[in-house]
Amino acid sequence: MGIQRRLVGSYLLVTCITVLILEIFLLVSVKYYYVHNVERFLMNQGELSASFFQQYFADEDVEKQSERLLKGFAHNSDAQVQILTASGNLLQDSTGLQSTKLLIQFQDVLTASQGVVGRWKGTEPVTQEPILAVSFPLIAKEKTVGIVRFVTSLTDTNRTVNQISMILIVAGIIVIVMVTSLSVFLSRTITKSIKDLKRAADRMTEGDFSVRAHIRYRDELGSLAETLNMMASKVVQNEKLKNEFISSVSHELRTPLTSIKGWVITLKSNGGENKPLLLEGLDIMESESERLTDMVDELLDFSKLDNGRITLQLGPVHVSEFLHQIGKQLAPRAARQGVKFEIEAEETLSVIQADSNRLKQVMLNLIDNALKFTDPYERILIQASSAQGGVVISVQDTGSGIGEEDLANVRNKFYKVDKHASGSGLGLSISEQIVKLHHGELRITSQIGVGTTVQIFLPSNLTIS
Ligand SMILES: Nc1ncnc2c1ncn2[C@@H]1O[C@H](COP(=O)(O)OP(=O)(O)OP(=O)(O)O)[C@@H](O)[C@H]1O
Ligand SMILES: [Mg+2]
After folding, report:
1. What is the reported pLDDT for 362?
2. Which domains, ranges and CATH numbers included, belong to the chain?
3. Which of 47, 249, 339, 376 is found 20 to 30 A from 64 (Cα to Cα)?
4. pLDDT tens for residues 282-293?
């Protein structure tokens, strides 16, 4: 069953049950209230008449004085008043109509004849009118000597009760109709959003990521649509990055291969005689193969990191020593490029637990970036200092810098600001993952034309279970 039917159905069910219970309660209450009012009125009059009789007429003969009694009792009453003998025979009737003389058949009269107040509600046998009757025993010297009976028609009361009931029923129906239309409207707003989402998701499964789910309302479904749209953009972006990556990697792989192939052809034709040329060619082929191996290693590393298949080989790392060692390795390249290269690390820095090979990989990546994007006469500064719970190592350059929009993406795999620059765009992504494996943090701040600073925080007493 669809959401709309389920929603509307449950709303309708709850409303109908509530309205039904309320209506029954109200109808019963209204009826009881009106009939009870009439009855109380009759009772009051009966009570008054009975006590009046007991006080002033107790010595007199009911049968003989019936006319006088009737006058007295009927004086203040709109109801039909009857005077009866103790055995239930009608003596007087205020309406003058005397349909039956034997009234003992009525429950109220029967009860009153036994000295107790009686009440009866029912249909008048002759006129078929609904009536309410109360009978009071007239007591003299502790004996029931007669009965006074008050009778009133319930036709008017019933009509009023019926009118009110009609109003209540119509109000109930209006409430049900209103709630139903409201729930239909409400569920439509939900199902429409869901249908939009489904349509967009369907198109996306078919491979069309240019569609966007329509956002109708700023609610949970709206934010779901937003997420879906964002996902689609990410897929498109990843697809683009993947294609760029494939073309840039093929290009990167092709360059050393072309050079190797060129040398092989050269050496084949005249390498045998020319010894210096042979050596030069072999040297270049060796370094180009190394470049190829490094590149393939980086790619393999990346896929391992991405699948979480890398575990750290933890050991104590003396940060300052470690940085100076790396500095020694890279200083010649910096000198070749004419970039100033400095390391500032206090000897007193705490020894941290880390995987020195992986950490070296991170530092080489960061310094490689700094060297790649820094012009001659600029400066690269590597610093290390203690921080709460660990150390912070920073690589700062005064190079080209990164724009705000690119800064948000440079850690993404395959992302390069300049699509044609050398490199696979994996360095920062790999570095960040390694730092995260160390439970550390990698932060990049940069400004175009001013330079870039990459900071890594590493906790000092890392234990990995
Ligand atoms: N120090 C920096 N100065 C300016 N731009 C930088 C710097 N470091 C990184 N970038 C930008 O971020 C991009 C991504 O860097 P990343 O190290 O991930 O990849 P890469 O250096 O291009 O390739 P790889 O490191 O895989 O050889 C770079 O292409 C460059 O555009
Ligand atoms: Mg790099």
Report:
1. 95
2. 3-159 (3.30.450.20), 220-306 (1.10.287.130), 315-459 (3.30.565.10)
3. 47
4. 999 999 999 889
